Amino acid sequence: MTEFSLSLNEDQTTVRDWIHGFALNVMRPVAQEWDEREETPWPVIEEAAKVGIYSLDFFANAMADPTGMTMVLVLEELSWGDAGLCMAIMGSTLAMAAIMANGTPEQVGEWIPACFGSPGDVKVAAFGVSEPDAGSDVSSLRTRAVYHEATDEWVLNGTKTWITNGGIADVHVVVASVDPALGSRGQASFVIPEGTPGLRMGQKFKKMGIRASHTAEVVLEDCRIPGRCLLGGKDRLDERLSHAREGVKTSGQAAMATFEATRPFVGAQAVGIARAAYEYALDYAKERRQFDRAIIENQAIAFKLSDMKTRTDAARLLVWRAAWMAATRQPFLNGEGSQSKLFASETAVHVTEEAIQILGGYGYVRDYPVERWHRDSKIYTIFEGTSEIQRLVIARAISGVRIR
Ligand SMILES: Cc1cc2nc3c(=O)[nH]c(=O)nc-3n(C[C@H](O)[C@H](O)[C@H](O)COP(=O)(O)OP(=O)(O)OC[C@H]3O[C@@H](n4cnc5c(N)ncnc54)[C@H](O)[C@@H]3O)c2cc1C
C-alpha cells in the first residue's frame, strides 16, 4: 500500500504550482465580475480547457495519483482562486464520476468526452439527484423512469432541483426511480443526451454564493431516451432489482464507500476558501493601523488569526487523510470522509466570518473579497450531504448504532 506522507513529491508540487498560477492570474482578476454577473463564466472554462485543466485527461491523471493527493491539491488551489469559478470548472466532474461509477466501458467511452467538449467548443455536464421533496433523503425520489420494451426506450418524468449546470449541460445524468417500492435500491442512473425533447430548464436560482456556478431546476416531461442510456445496462439493472425484491443484501456498503471517497474533494474546496480568507486577513491586520499601532498587535486580532490558521491546517490534514484512504481503498471505519467534509466546510464558514471581523467595515462591502468568500463558504455545509448528514454518518460509523 502507498504510505501516507506529508511531503509532496515533485509531480504533485509541479501540478499544484501550475494550478496556483491559473488561480492567481486567470481566476482572481475576474472573480468579482462573475459573482456579480451570476452567469456561467464560459471564457474562464474555455481558458481552463485551452491550458489543459478542463479536460478528461487532466482529471483522469489527477485521479490516478496512487497517494490520492493530486486531486485535493488541485481543488484547494482552484477554490483559493475563486469557489464559484472553481465550481463552474468542476461541476461537470459530478456527472463524469457517476458515469465512471455506473457505466459500461462503452458508455464511459461515449459519454465522458461529451461532458467536456474540446478547447474552442467546451461543453458542461450535470448530475441530478435532488428533487423538491427529496434532498437529504434520496430514497424518496419521485422522478420515474418507465421502460417501453417495444421501442427499447425509457420515458422519464419528474423535476430535479438545485442542479449544477442544470438545463445548460450537453450531458445530463439523472437518478430516477424504476421501482419506487424498493426505495434507493429501485433507482437507476440515466444519461440524457443534448437536445432530447422533454428536458427543459426550470427556474434558475439566484444564490447567496458561488454565483458564477449555474444552479437550476431540470424538468423532465415524457423525456424519451434510448435503452443504451441506462447506465450499466438493462441486464445489470434487472439483476439488481431481482436481488432487491428477494431481500438479498447488496451494494449499500459500496454506495457509502463511494460517497465517503468523494467527500474530501468537497472538503479541499472549503480549505481553499478558508486559506484565501486567512491570508487576506493576516496581510490586512499587519497593514491596518488603529490607536497608532497595527491591529495585529492586539491579542484579540492576533489570536483570531492563530485560530484561523490552526483550523485551516487541521482541516487540510483531515482532507489529505481521507483522500489517501480513498486512493488506497481503506475502509472508512470512523466516517473519515465525512469528518473531512464536515470539519473543512464548517472551518471555511468560521474563518471567512472572522476575516470579515478583522477587516471591520471593509470586510462587509463588496470592494473587498472577504464578504464574497463568506457567502461562498456556506454552501459547503449544505451540498453533497449537509453537516447534519455528515455527523449522522460519523455517529453511525463510530457507534454501530442506527442513530437517526
Ligand atoms: C448551490 C447548490 C448546488 C447543488 N448542486 C446539486 C447537484 O448538482 N446535483 C444534485 O443532485 N443536488 C445538488 N444540490 C442539492 C443539495 O445536495 C441539497 O440541497 C442537499 O442535499 C440538502 O437537501 P435539501 O436542500 O432538500 O435539504 P433537506 O434535506 O430538506 O434538509 C433540511 C435540513 O434538515 C436537516 N436534516 C435532514 N434530514 C436530517 C436527518 N436525518 N437528521 C438530521 N438533520 C436532518 C438537514 O441537515 C438540513 O439542515 C445543490 C444545492 C445547492 C444549494
Q: Please report the total strand number as a whole number.
A: 11
Task: Give the CATH topology of the largest domain.
Answer: Butyryl-CoA Dehydrogenase, subunit A, domain 3
Task: Assign the structural class, choosing from mainly alpha, mainly beta, alpha/beta, alpha+beta, or little secondary structure.
Answer: alpha+beta
Which percent band covers the strand fraction? 15-25%
Fourth CATH level, the homologous superfamily of the largest domain: Butyryl-CoA Dehydrogenase, subunit A, domain 3
Gyration radius (Cα, Å) is 22 Å
H/I helix tally? 14
For this structure, what is the CATH class of the largest domain?
Answer: Mainly Alpha
The order of strands across the largest sheet is: 4-5-9-8
Our measurement of the CA-to-CA distance between the termini, rounded to an integer number of angstroms, reads 35 Å
Helix content: 40-55%
Largest sheet: 4 strands, antiparallel
What would the principal axes of the Cα set say about the shape? globular
The average pLDDT value, as a whole number, equals: 96
How do the SSEs run, as a string of H and E? HHHHHHHEEEEEEEEEHHEEHHHHH
What compounds are bound to the protein? Answer: flavin-adenine dinucleotide
> How many separate structural domains?
3
Low-pLDDT stretches:
none
Name of the CATH architecture of the largest domain: Up-down Bundle
Feature tags:
404 residues; 3 domains; binds flavin-adenine dinucleotide; 11 strands; 3-stranded mixed beta sheet; 4-stranded antiparallel beta sheet
